[in-house]
Automatic annotation (TrEMBL), chains A, B:
This protein's record includes keyword Kinase: no
Ligase in keyword set: no
Keywords associated with the record: Pyridoxal phosphate
Protein name: 4-aminobutyrate aminotransferase-like enzyme
Cofactor: pyridoxal 5'-phosphate
InterPro entries tied to this protein: Aminotrans_3, Aminotrans_3_PPA_site, PyrdxlP-dep_Trfase, PyrdxlP-dep_Trfase_major, PyrdxlP-dep_Trfase_small
Family statement: Belongs to the class-III pyridoxal-phosphate-dependent aminotransferase family.
Length: 442, 442
């Protein structure tokens, strides 16, 4: 694991900045303080967004190949109109009857396998995972949680405690167990599922021997913070079955892969041929409006809901629902996931072509429009690979293209454009990546 | 403590409902399930809101004397215009420079005592309290949390575990200690602070003897879920000092009293003459938009922020900031808290007049526009007082006025109108309450 937990960030004094930016940063530091880290060595400053583009105060355009929250693009007029229209009519809470809440809940559930027929709304992906853990612990009677070794699942106390990605300063729960992934461990694809299952079984054994028991396997099915380890499809199925056998629930964290990111499916878990017990939603659900959800099987959802008095003031309010409803309508009507899959193939072949020409590109992995591109030649030391990834990201930023890094060594480029990305944007991105590779690796 | 955790709710089969509502409820139950409880014996169904009023599908108006989220009234045009305008320009996240975030953070901090000079944004009050607990535990090195005996602080795993209000089904943390309040215990005001301090000192002693230590005193300074125990001002000061002496932090949960609810002050803790270490904000901050914050002293905020990698995707996004900025502008420009204080005096004297005429009103307490009105004659059994409160709330609902209940026995009317309430609304409310009392108590 890298020692710097957010390598791609601004460090005071490291870069010469224009007065406008350095003054704003000074004011920002004084009132927002150390929690608020800025991306890039030279932070970006945006005042306008539209579709795939963000604009700085001088009108310079930056191509966004990083943000998955505005999945339909920045400032989508139809989504914003739905939000504004609803805000002008009523923002009801869920303790009152309001048909839109029920209509949208039914529409959302229809996108899931039949077994998943209940939904509870939240405001953020962290709230979704936090609630899913509460439900899993309540329904199973156990405490243990199994996650991947570099997982990130949220910012609440309970989710941060099962997020090894956050590093040493954030204490892990005594009841969390981390499992290695076959990909980073160098296990061939044919043995990947067996390797993963063996890791899971060993974690279950340990949790049981300590009387903790297993409440849940909590996984992002594209393992985005571990470095985008998407293959082979089916990889997690036997491990998930082992967890259910042991009395635990399977929670699919769809904050990253959900809502068509993987192209071929609406939900990432479908790629692995499993039906989880609980599914957690967040980021792209409202194209930027704070809304999330837990979707799940009736049994654990009702067991929790009937006994624990759960309510969430803002969650499910009609404005958020109307916004999310517009997002789902557009995703389905305009076949956004299908188009994203097609465009991801264009991006994939462009990246492979670059990889063949540059020894600096070690490997490329993707599921739909979520790409991980490993930087640094085979056999290069971890620190050099990492420095190279950071150099490429910052060269591209200076060139007007936004991406960042991921993975245990943060040497994997994280490429995750809004789903409305077109071929022309892919070509601009590929040209910029090539320029950056030449600049960085020579 | 009452056995039914949400007495004022719909129970299937208890009330005859029109087909339109019963069908909507059946669909709602099928997809949202048991977590989603409806208020009132006969649920309300709203399709439009404006100022102090909510409207059902038949155009019947209901006077809202319950909702503090739309503090400036339902569907405030100026707030909504600020939200829509910003959504059309940019919804930036906090990893990019954006001046509005810094401008608003500075304006918000100016409303606090000088010692409180840092802010971190969240999306909900639960997220605010969850983060404040993380900061307090990190900064103190201790785990223990002291709360009032019927406190509610949120819906995340960590906040629910310090919320005895949620009842037996939600397990309390082994490190939480509950303290009794002087008011419900019948302690005279002159001894109230000493009583509270003694309770706190005893909790600290117990936490220290078990090696848990005290991380925080977490309190809502108007004790709204305990039954609105607001007096005497200063009540909590010596207890808070004892916590700080013992190495713990004082967290003021301002989700209920904050943003001028108490009229005389912007923040509830000011009424008690204390400066907390951390302050948590939520509900009214965005007049319905999901936004919250933790405001605090530099030392614990920086200690946490510099080491723990905290980030929250939606929190501090420019649309939420622009919305909250409009709310703060209107609160200050139109002197909403000052007007709320004046109107609260009109409401208070009306309630006192009613109390003199009806033995069913036992006591009235308020801080600004947050009122608790105890139902049932002195000496009446708890169950009878509680039934009476429930009958009054539902009679008023049928009469077109919205309130609910609070307190350990849920026999206190919770009266908490939007802050823009006018004298004419108070008169309508008082007339309805009087009709309900006559109907219920005879």
């Amino acid at each position: 694991m890298s020692t710097d937990l957010m390598p791609n960030r601004y460090r005071p004094g490291e870069s010469d900045l224009p007065k406008r930016e350095s003054e704003l940063i000074a004011r920002r530091e004084a009132v927002l303080g150390a929690s608020y880290r800025l991306q890039y060595r030279r932070p970006v400053h945006f005042v306008r967004g539209e579709g795939m583009w963000l604009y700085d105060p001088d009108g310079r355009a930056y191509l966004d190949f990083y943000n998955n929250v505005p999945c339909l693009g920045h400032c989508h007029p139809e989504v914003n109109a739905a939000m504004a229209e609803q805000a002008g009519r009523i923002s009801a809470n869920t303790r009152y009857l309001e048909p839109k809440l029920v209509d949208y809940a039914e529409r959302l559930i229809e996108t899931f396998p039949n077994e998943l027929d209940r939904v509870v709304f939240t405001c953020t992906g962290s709230e979704s995972n936090d609630l899913a853990l509460r439900i899993a612990r309540f329904a199973s009677g156990n405490e243990g949680v199994i996650v991947s070794s570099y997982a990130y699942h949220g910012t609440s106390a309970a989710t941060a405690a099962v997020s090894p990605n956050l590093g040493d300063a954030v204490k892990l729960s005594p009841s969390v167990r981390m499992v290695s992934l076959p990909g980073p461990a160098g296990v061939p694809e044919a043995q990947a599922a067996d390797f993963f299952e063996a890791q899971i079984r060993s974690a279950i054994l340990d949790l049981n021997r300590r009387g903790i028991g297993v409440a849940a396997l909590l996984i992002d099915s594209i393992f985005s913070s571990d470095g985008v380890w998407v293959d082979p499809p089916g990889l997690i199925a036997s491990g998930a079955a082992a967890v259910r056998e042991a009395g635990g629930l399977v929670i699919a964290d769809e904050v990253q892969p959900g809502f068509g990111r993987t192209g071929a499916h609406m939900w990432g878990f479908e790629r692995h041929g499993i039906v989880p017990d609980l599914v957690t939603l967040g980021k792209p659900m409202g194209n930027g409006f704070p809304i999330g959800a837990v979707v799940g099987r009736k049994a654990p959802m009702e067991q929790f809901g009937a006994t624990s008095r759960y309510s969430n003031t803002f969650a499910g309010n009609t404005v958020g629902i109307a916004t999310a409803d517009a997002v789902l309508t557009i995703l389905q009507r305009d076949q956004i996931p299908q188009k994203a899959l097609a465009i991801s193939q264009h991006l994939r072949s462009g990246l492979e072509k670059i990889a063949n020409q540059h020894s600096g590109v070690r490997a490329t992995r993707n599921a739909g429009l979520f790409f991980g591109v490993d930087m640094g030649p085979e056999g290069a030391p971890a620190a050099r690979r990492r420095a190279m990834a950071l150099d490429v990201v910052n060269a591209m930023r200076d060139d007007g293209v936004l991406i960042s890094t991921t993975g245990a060594n943060e040497d994997t480029l994280k490429v995750r454009p809004p789903l409305v990305c077109q071929a022309e944007h892919v070509d601009l991105f590929l040209a910029s990546l090539e320029r950056a590779l030449i600049k960085v690796a020579g």
